Amino acid sequence: MTLVGDVDANGPFRAGLDGSLVLAGGVRVRFSVIEVDDRGPSWTRELRLGPIRLLVGHQVDEGFGLVTIQASGPVAFTYAPFARRSLSRLLKRGD
Question: What is the DSSP track for 14-43?
Fold first, then answer.
């Protein structure tokens, strides 16, 4: 099962981009891209769902991906497998 069904954003992927992720079941999670470094590549975005806030960092190095999550313990623990799966799928597309 894929957690993210669709991405709604206008413009290129860059710092300052705002949009929403449409999750399974139609739930919308707002996001803001905070930082993008094409040299890494790496990027950081903030995800918001009501009062819940996550700061999620993604980094790719020689085909390996790393995800860091800053949020309250239970939220970060619950989101981590989905973030890892998304980054793994993105890396497979680049092959």
Answer: -TT-EEEEEEGGG-EEEEEEEEEETTTTEE
CA-based nearest residue to 31, from 41, 17, 50: 17
- What does the pLDDT profile of the chain (95 residues) look like in tens digits? 467 778 899 888 899 999 998 887 888 999 999 999 988 789 999 999 999 999 999 888 877 788 888 988 788 888 888 787 777 777 776 55
Which structural domain range is residue 9 located in? 4-93
Residues 86, 90: Cα–Cα separation, whole Å: 6
Q: From the centroid of its chain, how far is CA 57? A: 7
Question: How many structural domains does the chain have?
Answer: 1
Count of CB atoms within 10 A of residue 33's CB? 19
CATH of the domain at 39: 3.30.530.20
